[in-house]
Design a protein that fits this description.
By secondary structure, the protein is α/β, with parallel strands linked by helices. The protein is built from 29 helices and 19 strands. It folds into three domains: 302 residues, 2-enoyl-CoA Hydratase, Chain A, domain 1; 180 residues, Rossmann fold (3-Layer(aba) Sandwich), CATH 3.40.50.720; 214 residues, N-(1-d-carboxylethyl)-l-norvaline Dehydrogenase, domain 2. Helix 12 packs across helix 13 and helix 19 packs across helix 24. The protein is globular, with a radius of gyration of 28 Å. The structure holds nicotinamide-adenine-dinucleotide.
Length: 736
């Protein structure tokens, strides 16, 4: 199969990428082999001055095909070969090709006689594809504001390991490259030009001709990259210069401060950057390739790729969607124009869906619409949205107290107060006006769906669609099936979530569903420790050390102690005698009832906040209300309590069939509450740690802290049989 078209226009070759069987180009072994052949043809042809590498699709390409990396591993393992060698072979083939382009056949000593390569990207170019651009001598991008350019590898457990790390540091210096390498920052062409990633932004119709003209007019000097010239100095200095020393020290400290050293890819990348800047380009690339291979061999990195790339994509593409016809939403009715309703209205209207936003009176509905406008205004200020786009999106939102206006809606999302009686009244009033086949969804965060569905005449069309706050930022949406929820409702919810470009998980009904069920014990465990006299700073730092992006007391402040108080009180009422209090209850009561500390929302929680709402230090009086004990626990024990409080709930959710698919349990945990992303999620964490080891951790904690740490039977069984969660439950077709 051919993936590239090779033509010549006088003295310039045009090599155009267009994979027949894919909507988006991706780097595969075949693509690399073919391009290598074309590059050789350019180098061997005396009539050519150079070449333009471009794409016939709307975008240049999405990166290296990560599923292929898993295949290379599996194949080598099956054949009894050396997995590391096989991976390095693939990585090195990519490096060699990009370096061949960069050297352009120039004489090694004189640097003369090289051909030039220009890259011309019509749209998005990511990861390994962007690294191809970096190998070229000049980069042209079409003026396409939707295009994204950059190196997102670090977000899925890798780092730019096809020359991107080495080249970007040589181009921009360590500090200049830091955001692109460490944070996977993506930019549009204009910003990429301002940031020196791209040389020229030209109108789409002039893209290839501009690149061809540049190749034709290029000089011999254009064929030599600055770092292949003698005397080249890395911007900001190399590590052995006094200035560079400071920069490198700063970069390492900053990275460790942000990652707590738990991400294998950032540590490897820093090593590749440091060691690579001590040697010449060819050796630097070899060093980068070796570090990159070491990351590919690290099980943590594989777990991250599996959850954050392979399985996330499978879920978004509908791995759990029932086989029913397209259920795309045209018009959504949102009832309750408060914080959540307004956010849901915004993401729906942004996706091109008409919105009827209903509240108790015109004023409240208008307030909701004004919140949508405020979100859009922020976008305009940050230049993410134009004034025209803002008006277009806002025009899709009708604010009204009149339920009849929802008569044309095919989906309803109810987001009124968390009160079953109010929700029941709203359900009945809505069903009286909406079409017979419309789906009714509730955004409840705590009330079981099956119970709420009792108010509905059509329980098979009743479902939970649980958003997280703030809706415009949080990527996870939890879809909850009540006992009677039918397939069409599930498909409708999934199609809606896909339209608004979020990631869904589908779970069965139970108290707190999946995400909140796991978050609450994590927050409670931290507060229980505060009650026991454990130093709050120890708790927060231990959480950071297990890789939680937001520590538990900080997270409690964010979600508010008031909400914690409300959930605790409601749970007590609902469970009656069966309610088993936790040490956290005392803390919530003392903090919220006793001290009026609600969290960030009133500027007073476990932390203090300034007038602008910026978090300051831990509240100094905490120790007065919760005296710190002389005997502080070992940090490892604090870490284990914090991580197991989440992991054990995830396992119990699987055991009780609330969680149907473990892929969703892991993806949902990372996107929903930031569960240690380096581990690939709570169930991957068990597999990485070793199920038997986890059972032993549970036994030790159970002895000291009681039943809540008792190892679930499912975990014990997996450990006893030498199994793993993914070994037992990963769907066959999705093995990665
Ligand atoms: P909110 O108080 O900000 O908004 C509720 C809105 O519902 C108000 O504008 C109110 O006027 C309106 N309302 C009340 N009764 C109504 C009626 N009979 N008809 C029409 N409108 C009515 O609350 P919120 O934080 O947006 O939460 C709404 C729902 O979303 C709740 O069920 C909550 O549990 C759930 N939820 C909240 C969060 C969160 O973080 N706040 C997260 C997920 C889900």
């Amino acid at each position: 199969m051919t993936n590239w078209k090779y033509e010549t226009d006088g003295d310039v070759a045009i090599i155009t990428w267009d994979m027949a069987d894919r909507s988006m180009n991706v780097m595969t072994a075949d693509v690399i082999r073919e391009l290598d052949g074309h590059v050789d043809a350019v180098l061997a042809d005396d009539a050519l001055k150079g070449a333009v590498i471009t794409s016939a699709k709307a975008d240049m390409g999405g990166g290296v095909d990560l599923t292929m990396l898993a295949e290379i591993k599996a194949q080598a393992a099956k054949e009894g070969g050396n997995v590391g060698e096989a991976l390095f072979g693939f990585v090195w083939a990519l490096h060699s090709l990009y370096r061949k382009i960069e050297v352009g056949g120039a004489d090694k000593k004189t640097k003369k006689g090289g051909k030039v390569f220009a890259a011309a990207t019509p749209g998005t170019a990511l990861g390994g594809v962007f690294e191809l651009l970096l190998g070229c001598h000049r980069r042209f991008a079409a003026d396409n504001p939707k295009a994204k350019l950059g190196l997102p590898e670090t977000l899925v457990g890798l780092f730019p390991g096809a020359g991107g790390t080495t080249r970007l540091v040589r181009m921009l210096g360590v500090m200049g490259a830091a955001d692109y390498l460490l944070k996977g920052k993506l930019v549009n062409p204009k910003k990429a030009k301002a940031g020196l990633l791209i040389d020229e932004v030209v109108p789409q119709e002039d893209l290839v001709s501009s690149a061809v003209a540049w190749v034709r007019g290029s000089s011999e000097k254009d064929a030599v990259k600055p770092w292949d010239d003698r005397g080249y100095k890395i911007p900001g200095g190399a590590p052995y210069t006094p200035k560079g020393f400071q920069t490198y020290l700063g970069a390492v400290a900053m990275t460790h401060g942000q990652t707590a050293g738990v991400y294998p890819q950032t540590n490897a990348m820093l090593s590749a950057v440091y060691e690579g800047s001590l040697v010449d380009m060819d050796n630097a690339l070899r060093i980068e390739a070796r570090w990159f291979t070491s990351v590919l061999m690290d099980p943590r990195s594989s777990a991250m790729i599996r959850s954050l790339f392979v399985n996330k994509q499978a879920i978004e593409k509908g791995a759990r969607r029932p086989d029913v016809p397209d259920q795309k939403v045209k018009s959504v009715g949102i009832i309750g124009a408060g914080m959540m309703g307004a956010g849901i209205a915004f993401v729906s209207a942004r996706a091109g869906i008409d919105v009827v936003l209903v509240d108790r009176d015109q004023e409240s509905a208008d307030r909701g619409r004004a919140s949508v406008e405020a979100i859009l205004d922020k976008g305009v200020k940050r230049k993410k949205v134009t004034e025209d786009q803002k008006n277009e999106i806002l025009a899709r939102v009708t604010a009204t107290p009149d339920y009849d206006k929802m008569s044309g809606c095919d989906l309803i999302v109810e987001a009124v107060f968390e009160d079953p009686k109010i929700k029941a009244t709203v359900t009945q009033a809505t069903e009286a006006v909406i079409p017979e086949d419309a789906i009714f969804a509730t955004n409840t965060s705590t009330l079981p769906i099956t119970g709420l569905a009792k108010a509905s005449k059509r329980p098979e069309q009743f479902i939970g669609i649980h958003f997280f706050s703030p809706v415009e930022k949080m990527m996870l949406v939890e879809i909850i099936k009540g006992e009677k929820t039918g397939d069409v409702a599930v498909a409708k919810a999934l199609d809606f979530v896909r339209q608004i470009k979020k990631t869904p998980i589908v779970v069965n009904d139970a108290r707190f569903f999946y995400a909140n069920r796991c978050i609450i014990p994590y927050l409670n465990e931290a507060m229980t420790m505060v009650n026991e006299g454990v130093k709050p700073a120890l708790i927060e730092n231990a959480a950071k050390h297990i890789g939680m992006p937001v520590a538990p007391l900080q997270l409690t402040d964010e979600t508010s102690l008031e909400l914690g108080h409300r959930i605790m009180s409601a749970t007590k009422v609902q469970m009656g005698d069966a309610y088993e209090g936790t040490g956290a209850d005392d803390v919530i009561i003392k903090m919220f009832e006793g001290q009026g500390r609600a969290g960030r929302k009133n500027g007073k929680g476990f932390y203090d906040y300034d007038e602008k709402g910026k978090r300051q230090k831990l509240w100094p009086d905490l120790a007065t209300h919760f005296p710190v004990s002389d005997d502080q626990p070992d940090v490892e024990e604090v870490k284990n309590r914090l991580i197991l409080s989440q992991v054990l709930e995830a396992i119990r959710a699987k055991e009780e069939d609330v969680l149907v698919d473990i892929r969703e349990g892991d993806v949902g945990a990372i996107l929903g509450w930031g569960f240690a992303p380096w581990s690939g999620g709570p169930l991957s964490w068990v597999d990485l740690t070793g199920p038997a080891e986890v059972v032993a951790m549970c036994d030790a904690l159970e002895q000291n802290y009681g039943e809540r740490f008792k190892a679930p039977d499912l975990l014990k069984d997996i450990a006893a049989k030498g199994d793993t969660f993914y070994g037992r439950f990963q769907p066959k077709q999705a093995a990665a």
